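Is D-ribose placement plausible here? Inputs below.
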Amino acid sequence: MKIAIACDHGGYPLKQALVDELEAGGHEVVDLGAHQYDKDDDYPDFARYLGQAIQHGQADKGVLLCGSGVGASIAANKLTGVRAAVCHDVYSAHQGVEHDDMNVICLGARIIGEETARELVRAFAGAVFSGEARHIRRLEKVKGMEAGG
Ligand code: RB5
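Reply from A.M.:
I modeled the complex. Tokens:
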């Protein structure tokens, strides 16, 4: 699977470990930066890069990192077709995909450690939307809201 990853300075300390983890799992990683630590960079810029990669089919899923995961998820969810959530527990990391078709996981590098983050991206990357009727029905309602309905 093609998985994009991006971070601001708050998420930067976790990014390379997660690139390594995903590649070790056989995934193709699209690294959208930040490529160096810059205390003045802004998480909405990286949320935009990552969301656009998903919108344009350059990645199937995304991992977005900031200090808490919160700003990243708020920004990413502004982009049509992006379904992002902060998931700092393994159940949510896979259930969010299975039930809600979440396509971006947001993680806070100031909140969780590297081993937890590795486990979360493994659970997220390995999960598949169930396609069950009730989940499709709910997803269609979410898409309707996104479309302004
Ligand atoms: C950056 O200092 C920090 O505010 C940002 O990474 C993130 O935590 C926002 O939610």
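Short version: The longest helix spans residues 133-146.
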